[in-house]
Amino acid sequence: MKQLIRQNTFFCSSHPWAASGILALASLVASVASAQDGQQTGGAEVTTGGAQSPVVSASPYYNPNVDLEKINSYLPSSSRPIVDGREQDGFDLNRSSQGAIILSGQGAESAYGEDGAPVGGEIKRSKGVKGPVPEFHTVKKGDTLWQVSQTYYQDPHEWPRLWSLNPQLENPHWIYPGDQLRTAPPGGQPFLAVAASGSRESRLGLGSGQAVPPGTIFLRDQGYIGDPEKDVWGELVGAREDRMMLSEGSTVYMLMNDGVDLRIGQRLSVFRDLRPPAKVPGGRTPEGRLVKVYGTVRIDGWNEKERVARGQLIESLDVVERGLKVGPVGRRFDVVPPKPATAALEARVLMGIHPHVYFGQNQVVFIDRGSKDGLVPGNRLRAVTRGDIWRRNLRAGAKHQRLRAETDLPEDAPATTTPLHGDDEKFPDEVIGEVTVIRTEEETSLCLVSESSRELVPGERLEAVAGY
Question: What architecture (CATH level 2) is domain 336-394+424-464?
Fold first, then answer.
């Protein structure tokens, strides 16, 4: 290694134009060699042909002339990158003890006892911050719903509960310094539980419990089956952008119906009625039509004389086009803990919001039973089937599909016909999935497929069991 340094020194003296760069490289090589030989290099200097140079240390690629904070100022605070080593990563669950919140282990206090009930009847925060949860939190730079939930509920995964208390947040990722977030129900009310369908408590996610029960579903609706005409206040007829397909951020113009009065800042849903409910074997066909919500528009201009409103799309669930209807559909964020059924009943899957033939886990479906049949949000219905699906498909197919080769015989494999003995209707029921009721209308319910071992289809049989 020392021989290599002497060679580099000779080269530098012969070629002065490369002296500075090679000298630094030689110094770095010398420091590495000393470290490998067990020598101490801190504070030492390496002599190369009579010239002296300090030991070179590695440094990060950092341009002090670039202000990363200004470059990323257009991003939400929770999406901006960390620009130095002193800032905490908001999604680091194993931070140091310097002002950090520890998820579990030493330095954290449990907010709940062994039975799952809040300690002392109130939700406490992480160690060092005592007392009940305040009603409001002022967003600071770098805050996220994840962090705020960790601070006040001692569990970052409780962020959907925090979001349900703040329906003004169109997107949980978009919070800004100075925003006021509600962190506890008003007036010291207890936290969420099942609420009656359509009630104010259901819209806000509040009720009579405190802890979020296992299996609780958080879902914002995207459609319903009902009378679309009662919600029509006007029509989206134009846009500022020169394009057919509009989305979040687009400025749109609406022609409002007579008798409709608007106010600046008011929010309306953009929707369209698609089709009547599907007719399925063994199911009831409810009245009304399937209405799909495409987005939300905020009114920022209103000409009452011309009946023309100007607004901005602040949310788009799908492509928005001219001709869609606008009105107060009344979308809400549903928080639905499981609730046992009070009576046994049978229902059928009708359809989904999208024209799918098959439905799987975490997809939304409509069923043909509602509040007048005794269903309430939180009820769970098992999807059951009976018979051999492969046999049914074989029986319905072409004749050659039933042929099979006898490969166990010594002679050439002859072709035989697959026997289809037995009656599928005499086979036992098998559970293939489960749906959870999110919201009920009089004759229909909106459900989430919470479990499925295979796909569900329109007409699939559902059963509610009393006490489950």
Answer: Beta Barrel (2.40)
